[in-house]
Amino acid sequence: MKEIKLKLILMYFLEFAVWGAYLTSLGSFLAQNGQAEHIGWFYAVQGVVSIFMPALIGIIADRWVPAQRMLSVCHLLAGAFMLCAGWYASTAATLEFTPLFSLYTLSIAFFMPTIGLSNSVGYSVLTSHGLDTVKHFPPIRIFGTIGFIISMLFVNFTGFQNTYGQLFTSGVLSIVLAAYALTMPNCPVNKTNEKVSVSDALGLKAFSLFKNRRMATFFVFSMFLGVALQITNGFANPFIQSFGDIPEFHGNWGVENANALISLSQISETLCILLIPFFLKRFGIKVVMLMAMLAWVFRFGLFGLGDPGSGVWMFILSMIVYGIAFDFFNVSGSLYVDKQTTPDIRSSAQGLFMVMTNGVGATIGTLCAQQVINHFVNSQPAGLARIEGWSTSWLIFAAYALVVAVLFFLIFHDKPAKNSTGDIRKAEIESNASDNPEGMI
Hints:
There is one protein chain. This protein is mostly helical. The protein has one domain: Growth Hormone, Chain: A, CATH 1.20.1250.20. It contains 17 helices and no strands. Helix 15 (312-339) packs antiparallel against helix 16. The longest helix has 33 residues, at 346-378. It is globular.
């Protein structure tokens, strides 16, 4: 049993180390190479490909190719394209948007499905060994965040946060994980000799979750909250570094090591993820999601009010609340979806959750955020005027998160009404906070 957990730990460590190599620092690399106005597109494309790629790959993993093998194939392709992007950036005299964006998009198209696939592998392995996912998954998943942090710090202290070196780092890690994934326990596919409908063959059965009002509401609000997911990843680093244009902050440690400062967010994740089993079982998914939404309000608001000097405590507090903002939404949401689905659509359902959050939600969020920042920040000359524009932008994002939290509180109900209709089974009337691990739709 210990060996199985260790294998999953290393898988998650590598999975998120791949992402951590560039996710929070790519914006600064682009800004310093004449691509500041295109930062939003590089983060939005993660959402665009997440609209269809995780679901498509999830279908294949559910019906034809074991999840651990699909994980390997996807990382092999993602790593190869990311290495090509790094090679282009290292050889181009002037960085052009189209070739870099094209190679990056191809890499991301195969990376984004691996988040859901790694969850499918994790849940499948834990379940096959008789372990409760709510209890045993978070302590394993925490090592994914640790991998993300170490990768961020490596990129920061090597100076790669402002260079193409971050792309090479990510590509190499992805290739390593492609090989390692083949050593994971087999995840059975849903093979059957029975005649299946076209919708089942295409994996559309996961969309039957929308027939239940409670689940439909959950997915819609997951999309609304997904709007916030990539905003700080794309813009926090260039925001903090922009203080360097003001003499008061020139040479400031936080300005020079923005990625290291931002890594406090992921350190907070490692602590908050361990709280998930208690909060889910004690308070249920509604309270946990509300806590995440309010944490996003503070995450953005504190950025808008702080600075890397006397106001650095606000930045630090913003990093601390990020653990609740991300984990209580992303990880708890994934666990909740897993508890509401049967094994035959596990990968498809995780892909659907990715579509709503990192797909539709994140795409809308990053493109809208880019427009707000172009208007309030990039239109201003470097210096105090630009910092004031950043402050306004962050406060606008905080107001959005507050509106979503209020609406979620009023509309979402953790338990369905007695006479509710849909495909949900009576055995699953109880909330995901229930101790019953067998409750499914």
